[in-house]
Design goal:
The chain is an alpha/beta fold. Strands 2-1-3-10-4-11 form a six-stranded mixed sheet, with helices on both faces. A five-stranded mixed sheet has the order 7-6-8-5-9, with helices on both faces. Helix 1 packs antiparallel against helix 2, helix 3 crosses helix 9 and helix 3 packs antiparallel against helix 10. The longest helix has 18 residues. The radius of gyration is 19 Å and the shape is globular. Pfam families: TctC. This is Tripartite tricarboxylate transporter substrate binding protein. It comes from Halalkalibacter oceani.
Length: about 350
Amino acid sequence: MRNVMILLLGLALCFLAACGANESTQGNNGSGEVEGQDEAEPAQNDLDYPQKPISMIVPFSAGGGTDATARALAAASEPYLGESIGIVNTTGGGGAVGMSEGINSTPDGHTITMVTVELTTLPHLGLAQFTYEDFKPVAQINFDPNVIAVPADSPYETIEDLVKDAKDNPGAIRVSNSGTGSIWHIAAASVEQATGAEFSHVPFEGSAPAITAALGNNVEAVSASPPEILSYVESGDLRPLAVLAEERSDALPDTPTFAELGIDATIVGCPRGIMVPKDTPDEIVEFLEEAFMKGAQEAEFVEYMETNGLGLVVGNAEEFGEVLAESHNFFAELIPQMDLN
């Protein structure tokens, strides 16, 4: 599919536009209301499901983009499920621990997982024994590009300044990320590969602590997503240098892209979505798909995503499965070419 290929080979924002134009995924008519959406009611089914509150595993720490998306989606989707959703932050292994727990949970629909692109990167790094095929997709909810940012009092005013110092002093520039092998680690490595710079990569268990390290001047820069740093940019605590995308981020419209600066780094980003263990009955998957697709179209959720700079890209189970399959194949080729030490 065109939107899948755009995601993988550097046309991420065109992919956003394509998905945004999909009538079945975003019904916002521009008036603040969602077309074709009545008052939220639980879907009718003969499954005797759900029978209890649902747990949503988030494989990264609270406060990052994945956590924020999960919590907002849970609130919007609960009315359609007829049960509450509890967020369970299960960190470790750059997302591997939480996703493994999700894969091995009881396949009855009462434990779901908010997965990230690391589902398709960690296996190729030898950091996970699972693949995306150990899950069943339910729905894609979001896509965000990468941004490199520095503390507001940093001497680095541009990405060129940072890269030059990293070339002149290999290893002296510490760049924090959300975990070894995480997408933001790979993004920073992509910048190294394109420029000849040499960073010292500093992994954390999620973007929130990685950003905290930059705020405390414990690292020279952080690799994250625009929504994850947006509040700190607005408060004047962080300065974004460049976005790894073809076009500027709506969240950071004044920040140039690597592409417009002439830096030909491989563009990678982070799709997020809901998955369940592969043995979950199809009827339950379909019920969850319908509920989360409706939740993602709720006006309050759409407004939350836009206000917080989170890329709203919604796809059904089949579409999300295709995104993950193409992503898996893409990173199978890319990762062996990169120095991710």
